[in-house]
Amino acid sequence: MPIYYLCLMQLPSSLLENAVNEFAKLPGIGKKTALRMVLYLLKQDVASVENFSEIIAKMRRDIKFCQRCHNISDGDICAICANSFRNQRIICVVENIRDVIAIESTQQFNGTYHVLGGIISPLDGIGPDQLNIESLVYRTEKEQTEELVFALSPNIQGDTTIYYIQKKMHHLSCRVTTIARGIAFGGELEYADELTLARSISNRLPVEKFVKL
After folding, report:
1. CA torsion angle for 135, 101, 162, 181 (degrees, to 10)?
2. What is the DSSP letter of 161?
3. Interior CA angle at 64 toward 133 and 51, to 5°?
4. Three-state DSSP class for residue 80
5. Helix (H) or strand (E) holding 195
6. Which of 8, 43, 81, 103 suits 75 as a labelling partner, its CA being 20 to 30 A distant?
7. Chain segment 74-128, per-residue pLDDT in tens
8. What is the crossing angle of helices 134-142 and 156-168, to 10°?
9. Is 151:94 a contact under the CB 8 Å cutoff?
10. Which domains does the chain have, with CATH numbers?
11. 192 — phi, psi (to 5°)?
């Protein structure tokens, strides 16, 4: 008897199996964990499960991306950009939304953000035109930005991205800095502990000290 058939027979319901397979598509979730999640939902009343599924569906359907910085938002402008108590003249440039969340958790940065949506990586087929770089250049010039803080993962792709953007902005007079390299070269920003990341943000240095390609 084929192995895959034995695996299918372990679950008594095709509905259960389908639900487990969908949960198992989530990152870091294996079949066993997915099964525990589905069995947990089966213990809940129907109204609770319907509310859960509606919240997820509504999030995917209605969530927006900030027209200014490309962060996730409930409206056209995110809460960070709309906050008048934040320094609107400082932009922290990050790779993705997870990095915004990581930096915000340190409570050491009071400026705004710009989410690139990735970093330049020719081997992965990611070029400058696929990132939110032009909108950053336009925004920096239009808003008379005083400082750009590059908080990209400290690896060769991150440094290449910084170098490219810096060249695109050579005509602008804003200060360009990068987070201090308390984060190991080759590491990923989102996995840094909050203390190390907080110190890196607070002790940022001129970008030319690091980016020399």
Report:
1. 160
2. H
3. 150
4. coil
5. helix 194-202
6. 103
7. 999 999 999 999 999 999 999 999 999 999 998 989 999 999 999 999 988 999 9
8. 50
9. yes
10. 3-62 (1.10.8.420), 84-209 (3.40.1360.10)
11. -70, 145
pLDDT band at 184 (very low <50, low <70, confident <90, very high): low
Asked if residues 154 and 183 have their Cβ atoms less than 8 Å apart, the reply is: yes
The per-residue pLDDT for 96 is: 96
CA distance 175 to 149: 8
Taking alpha carbons only, the member of 210, 122, 116 closest to residue 165 is 116
Q: Token digits for 145?
A: 């930005």
Q: In angstroms, rounded to a whole number, what is the distance separating the alpha carbons of residues 199 and 181?
A: 10
Kindly give, in sequence order, each residue whose CB lies less than 8 Å from that of residue 101, ignoring residues fewer than 6 positions away: none
Beta bridge partners of 121: 126
Does this model's pTM top 0.85? My answer is no
Confidence bin at 27 (pLDDT 50/70/90): very high
CA distance 174 to 91: 10
> 160 vs 146, 163, 170, CA distance in Å?
22, 5, 15
Name the token pair of 100.
Answer: 């915004």
Cα–Cα distance for residue pair 168/137, rounded to 1 Å: 7
